[in-house]
Amino acid sequence: MESYLTAKEAAEYLKLAERTLVRLAHEGKIPGVKIGGQWRFRRALLDEYLDTLASESVATSGASPSQVIDASMEEIFTVDQIIPDLKASNRPEVIHAMAEHVTGLGLVEDQAWLEAALAARERLVPTAVPEGVAFLHARRRASDKFPKQFIAMGRSPEGVVFGSPDMGKTNIFFLLALRNDALHLRWLSRLAWIVRNPTRLGRLTDADSADAIHAAMVEAAGALPGALRPTGAPAGR
């Protein structure tokens, strides 16, 4: 199982000063978690950070970055955006089911584009992490393809081999569709913080309905450390 990197190791990996890395993590700009008062980082999520910096962001339907709001969990993650019993046995089926669900809700206007974009991102670097969770998203924040930002979630009780085979099965799939890179990285950090805790992750795995899953997520979001809490303020690119 992939281990956490220390702040020093992560800074060396990213070629940053350690104090810069810690500041960016504290601001929610680099995905990391505090364990016992010390910052720790997963290499897979640092790769995601690098990939986000390298990718081209697309502006929000003509809106300036200052108009993109760092909204609360309740605003971007609703009960109907949860699939509590995801019917899929492999990666393409997971992607299809998630894309079909959010398209049916009117959250995405072009299902074919979303499926192709999610599949392309997984081919680049699988988004599954050892906790049995994956963070699906398109590499480019093509917000002209969806009317508003959102997070959706699917849960497969049986699990699906989604990353490398030695990682085991993935049971929980988040689909992130945020308006810009800054918000994408903030929500990636928040979700990673939520699922890192076995108790919080267990509640998501054991919940008996979409309503129960949603309640567990909202409760977890309410416990986010100060640096990771949604601000309700505009978020830059």
UniProtKB/TrEMBL annotation:
Signal peptide region: none
Key words, A-Z: Sugar transport, Transport
Pfam family, one: HTH_17
Molecular function via GO: DNA binding; protein kinase activator activity
PROSITE patterns from the UniProt entry: PTS_EIIA_TYPE_2 (PS51094)
Residues annotated as domain PTS EIIA type-2: 75-220
InterPro entries documented for this protein: DNA-bd_dom_put_sf, HTH_17, PTrfase/Anion_transptr, PTS_EIIA_type-2_dom, PTS_SugarTrans_NitroReg, SinI_DNA-bd
PANTHER family in the record: NITROGEN REGULATORY PROTEIN (PTHR47738:SF1), PTS SYSTEM FRUCTOSE-LIKE EIIA COMPONENT-RELATED (PTHR47738)
NCBIfam families registered for this protein in UniProt: excise
Protein name according to UniProt: PTS sugar transporter subunit IIA
Organism: Candidatus Sulfomarinibacter kjeldsenii
